[in-house]
Amino acid sequence: MFNLNDIIRPNVLKMKAYSSARDEFKGDASIFLDANENNLGSLAGENYNRYPDPHQKKLKARIAGIKGVQPEQIFLGNGSDEAIDLLFRMVCTPGQDAMLHLPPTYGMYEVSANLNDVALEAVQLTPNFQIPVQELLAQVKPTTKIIFICTPNNPTGNAIESESIEQVLRNFNGLVVLDEAYIDFSDSPSWTTRLAEFPNLVVLQTFSKAWGMAGLRLGLAFASAELIAVLDKIKPPYNINEATQELALKALFQTEALKDMVEKIVQERQLLMQALPALPAVEKVFPSDANFILVQVKDANRLYHYLLEKGIVVRNRSSLPGCAGCLRVTVGTLEENQKLLQAIAAF
Ligand SMILES: Cc1ncc(COP(=O)(O)O)c(C=O)c1O
């Protein structure tokens, strides 16, 4: 049986959150002399002389409406990379605990584990990039606290079968972190709809991809209210800055425009999926539920440098396990994609 308090580090369970000036004062006031801000104003304009809402209440209320969850089930991070780091710090004692991930996958799970001195265990995805569930569960040790599953997976682009994810959730008594950074481009439903069933489930999403806000740094974690309360306790108090909170809130009312953009990107993805296999340099195009495509080519290093010379940057993923000869290509605009296809055709 999963019990959240059993896996939270004892020092984290015991500690109290930083109490900010804005936390200590509640009520109406017109003169704020409590936070050592500059009351003359801000050289950056607007009300940037004031600290932002540490609880991001307006933003969370809007996100809750869009995602169909309670505000208490949402954590907001300075990118989802911040959530990944805080999850390690919440449950993994440095030099003692371990995490499991499934390469080829997103590189920050490994970087963040290394930074936090968490032992890194890896089980490679199958040749069609699915989870070998029995092999994964057999690797679990008493010190394994987190399993990271990326779906749709970066850099392979495919969604992970939901039966496999469910088996992991049911048979592992640590945190199962599902990274859904690319979920908006996928037909699969989000696992946020199943939070009530699985107290060990954490779903990560981000505004960096479909919403087009990578520069603002806004990522999300969804989980039980109890787990989110712990993340909120250990986060830096003002981790989401005022400009990000304001701009994101405005963007979050443009759901129709989001739909249009996602539809266009998915259409462009389809065009690339059809055109790429016809090119002589291309050996295989992997199915994609994301805004990028993994492409196996005859000479990845040479093609990569050739494209660079043409001013086109793609990601060379050929050194990752299971990705020999592979480049990862983000779906661009119609024009960009045509230039990419022409350049590969001329290679
Ligand atoms: C799978 C995955 N998760 C998370 C991120 C990072 O998201 P953020 O910009 O919110 O830190 C990326 C970025 O490439 C990603 O591919």
Q: What is the beta-strand fraction?
A: 5-15%
CATH topology of the largest domain: Aspartate Aminotransferase, domain 2
Regions with little confidence, pLDDT below 50 for 5+ residues: none
Biggest sheet details: 7 strands, mixed
- The CATH superfamily name of the largest domain is Type I PLP-dependent aspartate aminotransferase-like (Major domain)
What number is the mean pLDDT?
97
Separation of the first and last Cα atoms: 56 Å
What's the total helix number? 13
Strand count: 11
What coarse outline follows from CA principal-axis ratios? globular
What is the name of the CATH architecture of the largest domain?
3-Layer(aba) Sandwich
Tally the structural domains. Answer: 2
CATH class (first level) name of the largest domain: Alpha Beta
The structural class is: alpha/beta
Percent range for helical residues?
25-40%
* Radius of gyration, whole Å: 22 Å
Each distinct ligand:
pyridoxal-5'-phosphate
**Spatial order of strands in the largest sheet:** 1-7-6-5-4-2-3
How do the SSEs run, as a string of H and E?
Answer: HHHHEHEHEHEHEEEHHHEEHEEH
Modified residues (N6-(pyridoxal phosphate)lysine): 209
Subunit structure: Homodimer.
EC number: 2.6.1.9
Domain Aminotransferase class I/classII large: 39-344
